[in-house]
């Protein structure tokens, strides 16, 4: 896991999507090879967690358009989306932002 000084810009993130995964771990920008789907069947716990995350993601998209627009504007110039911040807040990781 290479540690970076800062995350690259959005254009680099999009160019390397599917090859390199850039992320923030405890406030430290990092990179790793793009995660691959496991070859073995997923466990029931993993499937349950995926279902919970999918429900959360769908509910986040149902956010009031005015609130969503304000969140999008507040993330202008940042490498993260408004949905990344909402997800971090829901999982208790907002302090890393």
Could you characterize what this model shows?
There is one protein chain. The chain is an alpha+beta fold and 97 residues long. The chain has 2 domains: 35 residues, no CATH class; 50 residues, no CATH class. Helices cover 44% and strands 12% of the residues. The chain has 4 helices and 2 strands. The protein has a two-stranded antiparallel ribbon. The longest helix is centred in the middle third of the chain and has 18 residues. The radius of gyration is 15 Å and the shape is globular. 0% of the residues are buried. The model has no long low-confidence stretch (mean pLDDT 83).
Radius of gyration from the alpha-carbon trace, in angstroms: 15 Å
Strand order of the largest sheet: 1-2
Let me know the average pLDDT.
83
Tally of individual domains? 2
What is the count of DSSP helices, taking H or I runs of 4+ residues? 4
Task: Tell me the overall shape.
Answer: globular
Number of strands: 2
Distance between the termini: 20 Å
Series of secondary-structure elements, N-terminal to C-terminal: HEEHHH
Give the quaternary arrangement of the chains: single chain
Spans with pLDDT under 50 lasting ≥5 residues? none
* Secondary-structure-derived class: alpha+beta
Biggest sheet layout: 2 strands, antiparallel
How much strand? 5-15%
Proportion of helical residues: 40-55%
Gist of the model:
The chain is α+β, with helices and mostly antiparallel strands and 97 residues long.
